[in-house]
Every structure is written in C-alpha cells, then in structure tokens.
Amino acid sequence: MMLALVDIQSGNLHSVENALRAAAGTDIVVTADPELISRADRIVLPGVGAFGACAANLRAIDGLEGALRQRVLSEGAPFLGICVGMQLLADHGDELGYHRGLGWFGGSVRRLDPSGTDAKVPHMGWNDVRPHGDHPLIPAGEAYFLHSFAYEGEAVIAETEHAGPVTAAIGRDNIVGVQFHPEKSQRYGLDLLARFLKWRP
Fold it and tell me: What local confidence, expressed as pLDDT, does residue 117 receive?
C-alpha cells in the first residue's frame, strides 16, 4: 500500500509523516508529483497557516488539483485532510480575503467569533471531539486543536465546543477531514491514523 502525503509547503509535513509511521504506516511517499498521487492507494493532505496561501501553493503545482480530484472523487481512494487540508475541501475561505477552495464539500471557512465570551481566538489546546452518529474513523475523545477559522457547511460528522459548536470533522464516502491535529493528539490521534491506514470505505 502506497500512501501519498501531499507536500504543499504548509509547514507541518514532517510531524504528520512521523505520526503516520508511528501508526504503522510503511510505504509513505512525501510528494507533490501528480503522477505519484494518481497511483496512491491512500492520500493525506495536511496544512497549516492561511487558507489562501495553502490553496495557492496547491494550485501552483501543475496537475495536482486534477490528480487529487481524479484519484479521490472519481476513483475512490481513501483521503484524509488535516487542519487547513480539511478546510480546503470547502467551496471557499474568507481568511485575508475571498479564496476558492477545492469545492468537494458545500461550505465555507470563516473566522471564529466567540464575542461576548471568555473564549479566545485562536482556539488552541485540547478539546472534546463529539461525533454525530457512528463513523469508523472518528470516535468520541479528546484532540488537540489550533485554529482561528472553522468550516461551516454540509457533511459535518463531529463537533467540538468553543463558545458554541465548532466543526471538528467532516466526511462523506471515502473522504474525511479533521480540524484538529492527529499528529499532536497523542493516543487519540495515532489511533485515528492507524484506523485510516486500514480503512476500506
């Protein structure tokens, strides 16, 4: 099994790679090569930083968006988006202007607004993950979050709480995205990655 860890120069690549290896991933290829991604058995898209910068980095690689769409949407390869890698699945993001996402899920990414509460932005630290129903990858537990913007839209499969409900995970068919960082979430995160490596949606 070859897993493609997509390199869009977002900063947290090596920590995600190390966590995947700790979760028993063996054949992990860190790449932005559309040809390799088009042959990957599983794909992980991590991301940190600004939505627009991550989207621009992805689209700067000729053929990458098309390879992801073909392999994931058309051919059904299991896909995991992490943090901004999850947010990019939305139609658009409003961080530092309007930026087009991949459009795989109908939704938008907007700044957290906990006004009138003691909650701070960014939302940083450990928080509960509360699933909506049963999903094989996302059980109840605690995970590590670090974000100022959050997804709002369809296919929410788990929430957390930060001055109101905040999307913790989205999913449909062979695609899952998580707002939290599995690579920083100790046993909960490693178990999630191990399940993803075995997942057959």
Answer: 79
Q: How many CA atoms lie within 13 A of 46 on its CB side?
A: 24
Sequence-distant (6+) residues with CB within 8 A of 183 are: 12, 15, 16, 18, 19, 82, 189, 193
113 vs 61: CA distance, rounded Å: 33
pLDDT in tens, 162-177: 989 999 999 999 999 9
Task: Give Cα 103 to chain centroid, integer Å.
Answer: 14
Average pLDDT over residues 8-19: 89
Cα separation, 72 vs 21, in Å, equals 22
d(CA 49, CA 81): 14
Mean pLDDT across the chain: 95
Quick one: pLDDT band at residue 198, thresholds 50, 70, 90? very high
Nearest to 173 by CA among 151, 145, 154, 190: 154
The verdict on whether 181 is a catalytic residue reads yes
83 among known catalytic residues: yes
Residue carrying structure tokens 């988006």 = 81
Q: What angle do CA 186, 111, 142 make, to 5 degrees?
A: 20
- pTM for the whole structure: 0.96
Catalytic position from the list 54, 83, 95, 159: 83
Q: Which member of 123, 147, 162, 181 is catalytic?
A: 181
